Amino acid sequence: MIGGATGPITKVISERRSLRRHWRIAETIFMIVLDTLMILAACYLAYRLRFKTLLHNPMLEGLKYQIFGYYTAAAPDNNQQFSSYMPLWAGVIAGLIIIFAARRLYHIRLTGNWFRQAWLIATSTTIGMAFLITYFFFFQNTNQYDPDTLVPNSRLLIPFIWFTTVVVLCAGRLVISGGMGMLYRMGLGETRVLVVGSGRLGKMVMQCLTASPNLGFSVVGFLHDMTEPPGDFGRFKMLGTIDDIGVVIRSMQVDEVIIALPSHLNNHAIRSVRLCERLGASFKLIPDLYELNLSRIDMENIEGIPLLGIRQASLNTPQRIITRTIDIVISSLALIIGSPIYLCIALAIVFTSPGPIIYKQDRVGLNGKHFKMLKFRSMYKDADQRLAQLLSQNEAQGPIFKMREDPRVTPVGRFIRRTSLDEIPQLFNVLKGEMSLVGPRPPLPREVAQYEEWQKGRLAIKPGCSGLWQVRGRSNISFDEGVLMDIYYIENWSLRLYIQILLRTIPAILFSRGAY
C-alpha cells in the first residue's frame, strides 16, 4: 500500500511536480532570452568602447602624442554603425548560447554557486572568442575595412567583446541570484526536501540546506535510520523511520528526497530509490565515502580502474602561512581602528561594577592545549562562584551552560554580549597565535571532560573568534548540531570557506542572531 498512486494526496503531489517541471522549462527559456539580451547589450557596450570612447579620444590622443609624438590618422571604419556589425553580433550571440548550453550552464541552479557560474561564463566566452579569432585569421586576414565582406573586420573589437560579455553576464547572474534568493526566503517556489538518514551525513545535509535559504530548499524533516537513538535533531523533526518513506513523501508533499544513508544500509538506499521512482519523486543520493566532502577525494585511473584517495584534512604549510597572515593583519587593524570604542567600553565597565576590565578564563585550544582566553568582563566578579546555583536553570543541551536572563550579567555586559563587543580582547589571543579569526569556539575544560569521543574532533584545529556555529545561529542551535558544524569546517577547510565565514560574521554580529 505504501507505493499506491491513487487518492487526492497523490493527485496534489502530481500537480505540484508537474508545475515544478513547467517552471523549470520556463526558467531555462527565460535565462536563454535574458542571456541573449545581455550579450547584445555587451556587444553594444564593446562597440561604444572601441569606436566612440577610445577612437580619437582627446585625452588618449594627447597621451599618445606625448609618448610617440604623433596623432592617430583618420580610420576608414570610424563611421561604421552598430547595425553594420549585426552579422557579427548574431554570430556571437548564437555561438555563446550554444557553448553555454553544451557546458550545461542552464542546468546550474540560479541561486547556486555564483563563482561556478562566473567561471563557466568566462571560460565559455573565451572559447567563443577563440573561434572568432580563428575566423578572422583565416577568412579576413586584414584589419582594413572592406565593404564586400559579410562582417566588417576589427580585430581590436574582439577583446572588448570578451571583456564586456563576461562582466555583463556575471553581473546579471549575480542580480538574478539575489532576486531569486529573496523570493525563496519569502517561501515562493521553494523545494520541500526530505532527508533519509539520521546519521552524521544526513545531519550535515540538513544543516547545509538550512544554512543557505537562498537555495530555495525547505527541510520538512528526516527519517531515522536506526543507527542511533531515535529523536529530533535540534530544529529538525524526525518524521518516522526509513520504512515510512512512502507515507511521508505523500503526506508531507515532498518535492525532493535526499538519501544520506551509511554504506551498511545500501539495501535500504536502493529500496528508497525505487520507491521514489514509483511515486514520481525526484531524489539525490549522497555517497558515504567516509562522510567526506568530494573536494577531498583524489581520483586516479590505471588501465581503466578508478582509484580513490583521501586528502588529509589538516592545513598544509602555505595555507597556514596565508591564514596566519590574514589573522595578524585583520586583528591588528581591528585593534587600532576600534581603540576609541574599546576605551569607552573599558570605562563603562569600570564605572558600573567593581572588578577587572579584562576577564581571563582557562580554555582548551588546539590538540587539548590550555590557554587564557581574554574577554571584556560582562558579569559581576563573583559570577563563577554563583554558577553552581544556576545549573538547574540551564537552557542549553549538552555540556555547555546558557541562560537568556542570567542574573550574573551586568547591564553593560548585557549590551556588549549581545553586540559581541565582549569578544574583542580575543584579538590579542589571535596575535599570540593561541586562536585564529575562524575556527571552533574554545571550550572550557569542564566541558571537554564531558565530550563524547566524536565531539573531541573539534579540538583538531586552532580555535577561533568566529565559526560556522556562530554565523549560523549561535545559541539558537543545539550543542550537537554546533559541534557537527565545527567538524564539518575542519574536515572541509579551504581558504574560500575561511573567508566566507569571516564575511558572514559581520551580519551575524549586526543582527545579533542567537546572541545573549
Automatic annotation (TrEMBL):
<comment type="similarity">
    <text>Belongs to the bacterial sugar transferase family.</text>
</comment>
<dbReference type="InterPro" id="IPR036291">
    <property type="entry name" value="NAD(P)-bd_dom_sf"/>
</dbReference>
<dbReference type="Pfam" id="PF13727">
    <property type="entry name" value="CoA_binding_3"/>
</dbReference>
<keyword id="KW-0812">Transmembrane</keyword>
<feature type="transmembrane region" description="Helical">
    <location>
        <begin position="328"/>
        <end position="351"/>
    </location>
</feature>
<feature type="transmembrane region" description="Helical">
    <location>
        <begin position="25"/>
        <end position="47"/>
    </location>
</feature>
<keyword id="KW-0808">Transferase</keyword>
<dbReference type="InterPro" id="IPR003362">
    <property type="entry name" value="Bact_transf"/>
</dbReference>
<feature type="transmembrane region" description="Helical">
    <location>
        <begin position="86"/>
        <end position="106"/>
    </location>
</feature>
<feature type="transmembrane region" description="Helical">
    <location>
        <begin position="118"/>
        <end position="138"/>
    </location>
</feature>
<feature type="transmembrane region" description="Helical">
    <location>
        <begin position="158"/>
        <end position="176"/>
    </location>
</feature>
<keyword id="KW-1133">Transmembrane helix</keyword>
<protein>
    <submittedName>
        <fullName>UDP-phosphate galactose phosphotransferase</fullName>
    </submittedName>
</protein>
<dbReference type="InterPro" id="IPR017475">
    <property type="entry name" value="EPS_sugar_tfrase"/>
</dbReference>
<feature type="domain" description="Bacterial sugar transferase">
    <location>
        <begin position="324"/>
        <end position="510"/>
    </location>
</feature>
<keyword id="KW-0472">Membrane</keyword>
<dbReference type="Pfam" id="PF02397">
    <property type="entry name" value="Bac_transf"/>
</dbReference>
